């Protein structure tokens, strides 16, 4: 097994790619600006990165447009595109330790996750979309003799992709894999907290044979590079994962510019419904996973636990016990399951919510913020009990390891509380009664309902939200829909 010392040694040898990647090359930002990216585990600066602005977005979009128009990628057959993307998947696999380290250093994610989930996941998602793309058939309408009407899927053109910091590599991959498989060109703007893995990914894509200009990466801040991409008149679609607030900005940018398509994967406040007949041990173990995996920095985190009153106290104790399987610590230690939060400003925000929680509900566990190795981004698993459904900690996305437990007395009440949210990303249902599981699932407003598990997810199934959790789906065959237009061609004969 790779030890903490091994990971530290490898980390010390890393060189960071830190330019703007346009036309297959790293360059300085047009205005020469740079910004620091910080390791939240020890508050040390990792490197400084070129700070892309509107000028760099213009250059990247122009490069993507040239590449799209001359057909160097869009003109290739799906089978040819598949080969390149399969090579990219293989290169990601060969580079899992380096990609995992970049992810861990940049955002504080435990190396045990980044090396087994995030980096291998990126390879898997590229491979899945690559393998699917030459198995999709277009359609012929049932017109009768003398007419032939072809219904074809065509790539949209230039895609702008703006992604968050919680799963930097995988959120980028969820956009890039279907966008590139369908023949589009892309300009990707990673989050300012986490630009490093996307820059390495761009280099690997070129090495795999992706022609220059097809994938451009512009690191930079949301309010300048992100906004410029959202407002750009030559971007055909903008795909976004991030907060609901910023998602709404992108709808406005589209309205103010060229009415580009906008697809949004945004926030969540996902409920887990635990009925009295559930396997309480399993449900408690998974409730801890649902709020502590990735330190709760998960859009579909099960941050609201709705529990039947008859088992509330027993179940709460089981969840508290289950948190002991989630040691907080140095993210380069393979035994660590929870690292620091991504940055000081975010840890401050989560700590503020814990204070709000103390005034709204009963603190049942945790609630402490710790300073380790010079960083105060470490927050212990925190559980509030007796949380009223209208409490702020039950309604607002905290995006940290903070769980709100609310009791219910009937199935109807559980459903009413679960659906009384501006969000609708995911939900879990715990019961041994199949009929209850299915009827409750039918009535939950959520893009994914997991029965007797939490956050079930696969490349084969669509992922996305309802209500203000967004619209459009990542993953699965349906993810291709966002990156294609349907074109009808009529032929008289
Ligand atoms: P964020 O919305 O602050 O930032 C996301 C991206 O938008 C970043 O690249 C950022 O630079 C950019 N951005 C910020 N302000 C902008 C502006 N004014 N104009 C244009 N671009 C701008 O989100 P975050 O804090 O990075 O990520 C956390 C959020 O992401 C949470 O709300 C979480 O629920 C959500 N998320 C959703 C999913 C999903 O699939 N639904 C997945 C992961 C994260």
UniProtKB/TrEMBL annotation:
PROSITE patterns: ALDEHYDE_DEHYDR_CYS, ALDEHYDE_DEHYDR_GLU. Keywords: Metal-binding, NADP, Oxidation, Oxidoreductase, Potassium. Residues 29-489 form the Aldehyde dehydrogenase domain. InterPro entries: Ald_DH/histidinol_DH, Ald_DH_C, Ald_DH_CS_CYS, Ald_DH_CS_GLU, Ald_DH_N, Aldehyde_DH_dom. GO terms for molecular function: aldehyde dehydrogenase [NAD(P)+] activity; metal ion binding. It comes from the Bacteria. The active site is at 265. Belongs to the aldehyde dehydrogenase family. This is Aldehyde dehydrogenase family protein. It comes from Shinella kummerowiae.
């Amino acid at each position: 097994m790779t030890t903490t010392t091994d990971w530290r040694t490898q980390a010390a040898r890393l060189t960071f790619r830190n330019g703007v990647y346009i036309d297959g090359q790293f360059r300085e930002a047009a205005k020469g600006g740079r910004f620091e990216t910080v390791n939240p585990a020890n508050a040390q600066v990792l490197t400084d990165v070129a700070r892309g602005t509107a000028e760099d977005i213009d250059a990247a979009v122009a490069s993507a447009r040239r590449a799209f128009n001359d057909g160097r990628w869009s003109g290739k057959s799906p089978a040819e595109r598949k080969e390149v993307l399969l090579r990219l998947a293989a290169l990601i696999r060969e580079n899992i330790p380096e990609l995992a380290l970049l992810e861990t250093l940049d955002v504080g994610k435990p190396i045990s996750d980044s090396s087994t989930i995030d980096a291998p996941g990126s390879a898997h998602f590229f491979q899945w979309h690559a393998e699917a793309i030459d198995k999709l058939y277009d359609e012929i309408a049932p017109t009768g003799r003398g007419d032939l009407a072809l219904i074809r899927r065509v790539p949209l053109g230039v895609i702008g992709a703006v992604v968050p910091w919680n799963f930097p590599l995988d959120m980028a991959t969820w956009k890039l894999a279907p966008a590139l498989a369908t023949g589009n060109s892309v300009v990707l703007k990673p989050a300012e907290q986490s630009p490093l893995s996307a820059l390495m990914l761009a280099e690997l894509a070129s090495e795999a044979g992706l022609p220059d200009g097809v994938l451009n990466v512009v690191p930079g801040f949301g309010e300048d590079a992100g906004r410029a991409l959202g407002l750009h008149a030559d971007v055909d679609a903008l795909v976004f994962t991030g907060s609901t607030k910023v998602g709404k900005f992108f709808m406005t940018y589209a309205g103010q510019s060229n009415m580009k398509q906008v697809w949004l994967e945004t926030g969540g406040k996902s409920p887990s419904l635990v009925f009295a007949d559930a396997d309480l041990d399993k449900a408690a173990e998974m409730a801890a996973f649902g709020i502590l995996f990735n330190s709760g920095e998960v859009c579909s985190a099960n941050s609201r636990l709705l529990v039947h009153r008859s088992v509330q106290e027993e179940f709460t104790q089981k969840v508290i016990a289950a948190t002991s399987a989630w040691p907080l610590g140095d993210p380069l230690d393979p035994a660590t399951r929870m690292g620091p939060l991504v940055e000081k400003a975010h840890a401050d925000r989560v700590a503020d919510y814990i204070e709000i929680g103390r005034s709204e509900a009963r603190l049942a566990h945790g609630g402490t913020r710790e300073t380790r190795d010079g960083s105060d981004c470490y927050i212990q698993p925190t559980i509030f009990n007796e949380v009223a459904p209208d409490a702020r900690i039950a309604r607002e996305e905290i995006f940290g390891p903070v769980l709100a437990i609310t009791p219910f007395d009937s199935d109807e009440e559980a459903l009413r509380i679960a659906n009384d949210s501006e969000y609708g990303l995911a939900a879990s249902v715990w019961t041994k009664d199949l009929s209850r599981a299915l009827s409750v699932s039918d009535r939950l407003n959520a893009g994914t309902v997991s029965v007797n598990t939490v956050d079930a997810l696969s490349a084969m199934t669509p992922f996305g939200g309802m209500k203000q959790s967004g619209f459009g789906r990542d993953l699965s065959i349906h993810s291709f829909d966002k990156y294609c237009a349907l074109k009808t061609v009529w032929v008289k004969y």
